[in-house]
Each structure stands twice: as structure tokens, then as C-alpha cells.
Amino acid sequence: MGLAAVIALAAIAAARTDGPLTAALQALGQRSMTFYLFQTAAFLAVFRPYALGLQDDVGLAGAFGVAAAVWLVSLAAADLMRRAGRRGPAEVLLRRLAYR
Predict the structure, then answer these.
(1) pLDDT tier for residue 95 given thresholds of 50, 70 and 90
(2) Which residues of 12-43 are buried (b: 16+ CB within 10 A; e: fewer)?
(3) How far apart, in whole angstroms, are the C-alpha atoms of residue 4 and residue 8?
(4) What would the mean pLDDT of 81-95 be, rounded to a whole number?
(5) pLDDT confidence of residue 70
(6) What is the pLDDT of residues 34-48, one digit of tens each?
(7) Which residues constitute the domain of residue 53?
(8) Would 2 be classed as within a structural domain?
(9) Which residue in 1, 8, 24, 57 is a FRET match for 83, CA 20 to 30 A apart?
(10) Within a domain: residue 11?
(11) What's the rounded Cα separation, in Å, for the pair 46 and 70?
């Protein structure tokens, strides 16, 4: 519970400033469905036995490292999409299906 509180306090402090980290976090939130699907696919590719199958090899610290790396890639990709003025593909598809 202590780590969650530290992360929450850091997020609150970051949200009060207008900087590149805040913009990247907002971009990730605006494309949350796309990056939820991306992260799911990445974890399946790394950990499932029919893919890389590393679930038994990396341990807890390794799994945390994989999760952190996937999240950082998601954050960077979301920020690049924001700079290019593009929405997430999953959000675009959902809009097309919903507002047909």
C-alpha cells in the first residue's frame, strides 16, 4: 500500500505542472484502449508458453522490469501519436462502429 501512495502523490504533483511528462501521461490516457490492447499483446508475447514463454525464467523482478519497459514504450508511443495529432487506432475503430 505504501508504494501505491507514493505513486499517487507523485501523479498528483505531476498533474499540477504543465510539462512533457504531464502531456505524455495525458496522451496515454486519451489512447487508453489502444495501449491496453498493446500491453496485453506484449505480455502475451513475452510470457505465454506459445510465444517466448519467459514466465518461469524471469522471476518477480524480471516481470516487473518487463511491465515497466512495456509501460514506458506505451508512454513514448502515445506521446508520439499526440505530437502527430493522431488518435489511437482502437479509439478510431470504436468511434466508427459507434457513430456509423
Answers:
(1) very high
(2) eeeeeeeeeeeebbebbebbeebbeebeeebb
(3) 6
(4) 95
(5) 94
(6) 999 999 999 999 888
(7) 19-98
(8) no
(9) 8
(10) no
(11) 10
